[in-house]
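ok posting inputs for the LLP job
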Amino acid sequence: MINFKKLSNKYDTPLYVYNFDEITKNYNELKNAFKARKSMLCYAVKANSNLSVLKHLAKLGSGCDCVSIGEVKRALLAGVDKYKIIFSGVGKKDSEIREALQKDILMLNLESEEEMLRVEKIAKELDKNARISIRVNPDIDPKTHPYISTGLHENKFGVDIDTAKKMYLYANKSKNLTPIGIHYHIGSQIVKALPFKEAALVMGNLLRSLKAANIDIKFFDIGGGVGIKYKDEITISLYDYAQNIFEALKNEDVTIVCEPGRYMVGNCGYLLTKVLYEKANDKKRFVIVDAGMNDLVRPSLYQAYHDFEVIGANDDEKSLADIVGPICESGDFLAKDRQMPKTKHDDLIVIKSAGAYGFTMSSNYNTRCKVAEIALEDGKDRLIRRRENFEDLIELEKEYI
Ligand code: LLP
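and the output
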């Protein structure tokens, strides 16, 4: 049991708390599911990019999936092996491509023909050979929230299969490109096994046709997307998830790359917030807290459900309420129309499943400071990002005033 009260007294609120022992457990469980084959877990940095989180995963042997040169640099700084770093993303700038090639990471994951030509040009200028994979959009519906579905042709990600084949043939002949991987990612928070299975079959067939054309694909990157339990979701079995991939790959000799983000950190994280006030009118009861959409935007952006607990509350007197933040937006809520006990000033509320896409999507909107982050490991707590202060916020502006 985590003593949230003690942590909130020690570090103040709002506060992000991550249980590193749980991250270890998740890493090992997923790695274990793939143990019958060569595999590499490349954690999706965007889910939670705190350097200490990355260092913890690096020590477990994890690689990283990055979507900006900033994320690549974080991963390297945290001690991730450069040959376990993949750089994806639909819009890489020339400077990002150049730096990634100079840093000699495992591969760049390309998302368009034009990008491939740019990478080839930049690699030529640097007299380098760019190891690449191509992100294929297999046009499969992951049955998740439309904003986090990525593997349909209406989504901006990747290229269709025919374009991918053309690109592989081109890259295979280029002096400055070496295709070594094949990549897809159909979406996030997926709780059904079927879309993963369908995508793997389509992509397994593509792999075979590329190998038949003498393209030496070494990495079969299945992306991330494994969903977690926020409310009452029945999540997929990792064993079945891996078996479906094995089935699609039959005897193909490739390293399976998996890019979990949410699965790895989502349920390991909590956002601690304190009640400021309560108020009600004829329609609604509002519990106003010190964390807002600037700290955790998922409820506002995706109508995402996060479970919560009011510490030490008397559960008998519950009624419907919204938990809202201090931001000047009606969309600023952490929970909507939920049964809640009566609260009073300084009561502690723990928002659960906040470890993924929580802090990384936070902002300074309304000139609010980003909150502190702490790690729990082996029964000890430690600060892994100090709370921002007003000076931090004006640092880049004050000299121009
Ligand atoms: N690989 C690629 C290429 C991705 O685009 C993503 C996530 C992942 C891996 C990791 O997916 P995961 O295992 O976390 O599902 N902000 C949204 C989620 C956006 C996901 C974007 N891509 C949310 O809060 O639900």
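notes: Residues 148 and 188 are 5 Å apart (CA to CA). The chain is about 30% helix and 25% strand.
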